[in-house]
Design a protein that fits this description.
The protein has 706 residues and is of the alpha+beta class. It is built from 26 helices and 19 strands. Strands 2-1-3-4 form a four-stranded mixed beta sheet. The longest helix is centred in the last third of the chain and has 20 residues.
């Protein structure tokens, strides 16, 4: 009821600041003088450092200045790879007349949402309350103390000018009205996504999960994969849960859906057919036209997903996607110190020197004819250089609609010759494409996204056995250990030019703990399990809300925010709370820690009712649900050949196990009293109670999947 009242109030408020149509005139742009962003490290903030707007970074001094001058604040939030952020910058923030209006009447703050997701969460909540939706660029006008009074996403120059004028006038003429509205809206922000403790003793039954998945299926596109409607995001956490559920519950319909989804994604324009890697989303239902930015977090999670899907299906397409995507990531994102950059821009300069979305990736027929000569007709058929693959103007996005087998059946070419040709085509086109203007790279490093990349390499190593993948994983793990973990076991969120400056958020702890647990399971090196335990101790001390049993997004040491939010919904990246709940479950089993096990179950109980109402927003929570509703096993491998037995076990897709191992005697609870000299045994256990030990991985698999 509270949110509905706020939305109603906002509707009336919007009438005061109604928007006009875009003014097409261009004012003189002055880019010679830098503003305060010139001292920042974020590539997104540096992109705005020569705007005539007197941008300032978010910090205590700037907020104090706004209060001292009693000026409204413009908080503009975006990220380096954001296309519409660039458009609004060009139209409004590079414009002298708009800048003069902002500089005279407002304190203007630029925020990189990837560096400061805590700030983004708060003002995104405000805009969603005001408008019913959100996106980037995110533009909020607030009181001098940061409480929002107006917000939206992209505005044309004329709209933005009108908003600035109306808000400035209203605050000068009737400040009490603006303050009263801000108070009400801030209450709404504090009360959005609240989680209450659930003291019911819930059984988490298999039958109930089956009903939840039945509702889940109504949202799925069984024809083209993914979820219904457009725009269409890959949503790796959703697909990962459905893959696991389909396997553990022998759901053939879902198994076919997963194969369809991953094949259509791999064949679509959202996947870079020449250089590998995935764009952030598709604007259409067929996965044809991407929004061209490439994000580290998408590609990391999709590597994990495709690796596991290959482990289950042995589909060679999925293996190719993993290899090509990792090649792309290493070529475009990897730093010398083992960490990875954040993203590639959607825009790059075209042949006329103008920034244009997708210009780096698309092709004209004339270009392709010139490059491919007598192979053009075959290439044209394979990649749909026709009405199916046409994008806009004379540009085509490479887009496959036939399987390789179907293509070979209708064209007079052998499989060996075909594979050779595809490899040659990609090599030729990639060489030419590399001569084009590259999209800008956001070269900051984020702890949470690098942890996802660490986990991706672990998953790829365990499935494909390539030592280089494990080496990359260990290198990332060492980077986080050396550069991002402080002496008190707290984390930094960011890293750029040798400096880490922003304290970590719950997402950083969640994904790093998860990655270290996975690295331990691949190496049996107990230092990674110890680090996971140390980080969990810190996050339960400084982020845990005892009243709700959930974790705040920000630490108890954080200041200058108008609200302390709790992230629960699983989106493109799984929520910090769902990841932490899964980690508590695993660490509880590793350490025989009842407190951790109880916390994990309580967290799942808290969101149980919401899961039943909207399961697609809780896919990673549903992974935890599977641990309770279906059999879950601890597998201990003890003895001199423990690594060999692990590699044998990794040949199978078995998602409902937690592995521990050692080549010597170990005090780890799951391994205690299991070491026998000159022998290697696999123990399949449930809550510490073990079946008869076996010496072959296949026998252990049979005990699990009987």
């Amino acid at each position: 009821m509270r949110c509905n009242n706020i939305i109603g109030s906002v509707t009336l408020f919007f009438m005061v600041v109604s928007c006009s149509q875009q003014n097409k005139s261009n004012d003189t742009i002055n880019l010679k003088k830098s503003n305060d962003l010139i001292n920042e490290t974020s590539p997104y903030l540096l992109q705005h450092a020569y705007n005539p707007v007197d941008w300032k970074p978010w910090n205590d001094a700037v907020l104090t200045l706004a209060k001292k001058q009693d000026k409204l604040i413009v908080i503009s939030i975006g990220y380096s790879a954001c296309h519409w952020c660039h458009v609004m910058e060009e139209e409004s923030f590079q414009n002298d007349s708009v800048a003069a209006l902002m500089n005279q009447n407002f304190i203007s703050i630029k925020v990189d949402r990837e560096e400061r997701p805590d700030i983004d969460q708060i003002y995104m909540s405000a805009v969603q309350l005001m408008t019913g939706s959100g996106g980037w660029p995110l533009n909020c006008i607030t009181l001098p103390d940061g409480r929002p009074v107006f917000g939206g996403t992209y505005f044309t120059k004329q709209q933005w000018t009108k908003i600035l004028q109306d808000m400035s006038r209203l605050y000068k003429e009737d400040p009490d009205k603006v303050i009263a509205y801000a108070k009400k809206l801030t209450e709404g922000i504090k009360n959005t996504n609240l989680v209450e403790i659930n003291n019911e003793d819930l059984p988490f039954k298999k039958e109930q999960l089956k009903r939840i998945v039945k509702d889940y299926k109504t949202t799925l596109d069984f024809k083209d994969g993914g979820q219904k409607n457009a725009p269409k995001f890959p949503m790796p956490a959703n697909l990962s849960f459905l893959l696991r559920y389909s396997f553990q519950n022998s759901d053939k319909e879902l198994q076919q859906y997963i194969t369809t989804s991953l094949t259509k994604l791999a064949n679509g324009g959202i996947y870079d057919q020449i250089g590998g890697g995935f764009s952030r989303y598709s604007v259409d239902e067929r996965w044809h036209v991407p929004h061209f930015e490439k994000m580290l977090y998408d590609n990391a999670q999709l590597v994990s997903l495709y690796s596991k899907a290959y482990q289950f299906t042995k589909n060679e397409i999925f293996k190719t996607v993993v290899e090509e995507t990792l090649d792309f990531i290493e070529a475009e994102f990897e730093q010398q110190d083992g960490a990875f950059y954040s993203s590639l821009d959607a825009d790059s300069k075209n042949t006329e020197g103008e920034l244009q979305e997708g210009s780096y990736y698309v092709w004209t027929q004339d270009e392709l004819k010139s490059l491919l000569a007598e192979d053009f007709n075959l290439f044209k058929t394979y990649y749909n250089i026709n009405a199916i693959g046409k994008w806009e103007k004379d540009n085509y996005i490479l887009f496959k609609t036939k399987t390789d087998k179907a293509f070979l059946d209708t064209n007079n070419i052998t499989h060996v010759e075909f594979v050779s040709k595809v490899k040659l085509w990609k090599s030729k086109l990639l060489k030419i494409r590399n001569e084009r203007n590259l999209p800008r790279t956001d070269d900051k490093t984020l702890t949470s996204w690098n942890a996802l990349m660490l986990e991706a390499y672990v998953d790829a190593y365990r499935v494909f056995g390539k030592k280089i993948y494990l080496d990359k994983a260990i290198k990332i793990a060492e980077f986080i250990k050396e550069h991002q973990i402080k002496q008190d076991n707290s984390l930094f969120h960011n890293y750029k030019d040798g400096k880490s400056t922003i304290d970590g958020f719950s997402e950083d702890y969640a994904h790093t703990i998860s990655a270290y647990i996975e690295l331990y399971q691949a190496t049996f090196n107990e230092q990674w399990l110890k680090l996971a335990n140390d980080l969990m101790h810190y996050v339960t001390t400084h982020f845990f809300n005892k009243e709700t049993g959930m974790f705040y997004f920000t630490s108890s040491t954080a200041t200058n925010l108008i609200a302390r939010k709790t992230e629960v919904l699983d989106n493109v990246i799984s929520s910090s709370n769902s990841v932490l709940a899964n980690c508590l479950f695993k660490l509880g089993h590793y350490n025989a820690n009842k407190d951790y096990l109880n916390k994990a179950k309580q967290m799942l109980s808290n969101v149980n009712n919401d899961i039943e109402k909207a399961p697609t927003g809780y896919s990673n929570w549903l992974n935890l649900y599977l641990n309770y509703s279906n059999p879950y096993y601890e597998v201990a491998i003890s003895g001199k050949d423990a690594y060999t037995k692990l590699r044998e076990l990794d040949a199978f897709y078995i998602p409902n196990i937690l592995i521990s191992g050692s080549t010597t005697a170990s005090n780890t609870p799951l391994l205690q009293n299991k070491y026998i000299e000159d022998e290697t045994y696999l123990y399949v256990c449930t809550n510490g109670t073990c079946k008869l030990p076996v010496t072959h991985a296949l026998k252990a698999k049979e005990q699990i999947l009987k």
